[in-house]
Design goal:
mainly alpha; 73% helix
């Protein structure tokens, strides 16, 4: 991989695109609601078709490359072991989504959202334990600040009425969800960064599992509420949402392969700020001072991780400031 200005620009473009899609996820869901604020369509259906579309894109790319670039053919192969290994991230995300319903029976939504932020620091811990990544003090501080900023944002619109009651069962389920959320990203990164298979071949295997797990969810949801039919009311906005989810999913896979799970986590958290700004401009939602301080914390974390951590030398003493401590 080159490290010239061209590759830096490409990196910035990928990160910018992923951030944009991530920031638009919540407004997109909001846009698909009916007048009463509910959903006239089956949500599982959207995820299933988005997964199917991603699979189509990935397989299409592989077939096209197989035809047009014979030199790539040796790399467009996978073993049975590869196939089964890719079920792990698929299953982990599937478990996370399905456990969320269970967790919400044991705690208030506000508590659920708040605890979910601990997946940020969990990604860092798992990256060190599973991927053998080395993080310096500044990078640990930035992950801690990032977790704090996200949590502060969640707390900023809590009024006194929002109870934060959580049962022991709730905490246990939450621990599994957080391990799934962090572990799924770490497992995907580990699989995608080993070997020299093209990303789209890896995606194709991953999405076969995604389609299977989502189909299972769709059937379960169908049996629970058969009156709606398989899809419910699907109009232009729902179709847009399917395409959007597919593009967003593909952008995440590029981020995980090129940069890894920690970068993905930063993008996820910075998206909180962007989503708030989108809500502010589109729906006139207000932004409080408390939210602004949480934005500042998140920006500090990004600055520490991207700029300061690169030049941080734990043993070296800052020569430029003889009087001040470098801590």
């Amino acid at each position: 991989s080159m490290d010239g200005p061209a590759s830096k620009a490409t990196d910035a473009a990928f990160i910018g695109a992923a951030l944009l899609f991530n920031s638009l996820t919540a407004p997109m869901v909001k846009a698909t609601q009916n007048a009463e604020g509910g959903y006239s369509y089956r949500k599982e259906c959207i995820y299933f078709f988005a997964e199917l579309l991603k699979l189509g894109v990935a397989v299409g790319w592989c077939v096209w490359k197989w035809q047009t670039e014979p030199s790539l053919r040796p790399k467009l192969r996978f073993s049975q072991r590869d196939f089964w290994q890719y079920s792990i991230p698929g299953f982990v995300f599937f478990a996370q989504n399905n456990l969320s319903f269970l967790a919400l029976q044991h705690m208030a939504p506000a508590a659920f959202q708040l605890l979910l932020n601990t997946r940020i620091i969990s990604v860092a811990i798992l990256a060190v334990m599973v991927l053998g990544k080395k993080l310096n003090t500044v990078e640990w501080m930035s992950m801690w600040l990032l977790t704090n900023g996200a949590a502060a944002y969640q707390l900023s619109d809590c009024d006194g009425d929002n109870d934060m009651k959580v049962s022991v069962e709730g905490l246990m389920i939450m621990f599994i969800i957080i391990m799934c959320a962090a572990g799924g990203n770490i497992a995907t990164q580990k699989l995608m960064q080993k070997g020299d298979q093209p990303l789209m071949l890896q995606n194709a295997i991953l999405y076969v599992w995604g389609v299977a797990f989502n189909l299972f969810n769709l059937v379960v949801s169908m049996r629970g509420n058969p009156d709606m039919g398989w899809v419910g009311q699907v109009e232009g906005i729902q179709v847009t949402s399917i395409v959007f989810n597919a593009v967003y999913g593909l952008s995440i896979s590029i981020i995980l392969k090129r940069f890894g799970a920690i970068t993905r986590t930063f993008i996820n958290t910075v998206a909180i700020i962007c989503t708030a700004l989108i809500d502010y401009s589109m729906w006139g939602d207000s932004i409080t001072y408390l939210q602004m301080t949480s934005f500042a914390t998140i920006f500090c974390a990004v600055f520490l991780n991207s700029i300061i951590a690169k030049d941080y030398k734990p043993d070296g003493v800052a020569v430029s400031s003889p009087g001040g401590g470098g801590g």
